[in-house]
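Data deposition worksheet. Section B asks for the primary sequence of the deposited chain exactly as it was used as input, without tags or linkers unless they were present during the calculation. Section C holds the resulting structure in token form. Section D is free text for depositor observations; keep each observation to a single sentence. Incomplete worksheets are returned to the depositor.
Section A, Depositor: J.P.
Section B:
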Amino acid sequence: MDRLSAAFETSARRWELIVYPTLFAFVVLAAYGFYLVFSLTRDVHYLALSVDSNMTVLASNMQAVSDNMAHLTANVRTMAVSVESINTKVSTLEPMLANIDSMDRAMRSMTFATHNIGQDMAVMNRQISRPMSFFNGFMPW
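Section C:
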């Protein structure tokens, strides 16, 4: 029995050399794991607070975008009315274009007549200037 007791004690010491350091490593790893989980939950908490505050800002900005879209819609409606008014006014200009076309033709006719008057004056100047220059040679001035 003494031998069995000695063999058991040596076996127990071998197990102690293996189990106690393993148990210590397990406790250290468990403590580090607890620290990692605690750190992760704290970071997730900060992340949740940040997302919540950013979502509040985003919601207010979306409200501003919605209000601006309402103003934009009203402005587009006003522009549609203005374009319709412009269309009506342009349709009233079409008869005026016919009158402007007839005025353009009359102006061309007047320009042609003025040009003919200028040519007639040049011809008359040539016809009168020769005899007048002859008579001016007799005058004492």
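Section D:
The helical segments are 2-136.
The mean pLDDT is 86.
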